[in-house]
Amino acid sequence: MESRHFIALDSLRGICASIVAIFHVDGDLYIKSIPFVANGFLFVDFFFVLSGFVIAASYRQKIIEGFPIGKFMFLRWGRLYPLHAFMLLAYLSVALYKLSYGQAAPYSMSEFIGSALLLQAFEPHFGLDMNHWNPPSWSISSEFWTYLIFALTLRFSGRNYLAAFYAFIALTTPILLFGSERGMNVCFTGAGIARCLFGFSFGVVAYQTWQRGLFDGLKRSYLIASVVEVAALAACLAIVSYTGSSRTGLLCPPIFAVTVVVIAHQAGAASRLLLTSPLIFVGTLSYSIYMTHEFVLARLLNAMSWLSKQLSLPILIDGFAITNAPGHVLWSDLAVIPFYGAVLCISWMTFRTIENPGRLWSREIVSSSRKKFAY
Question: pTM score > 0.90 for this model?
Answer without folding.
Answer: yes
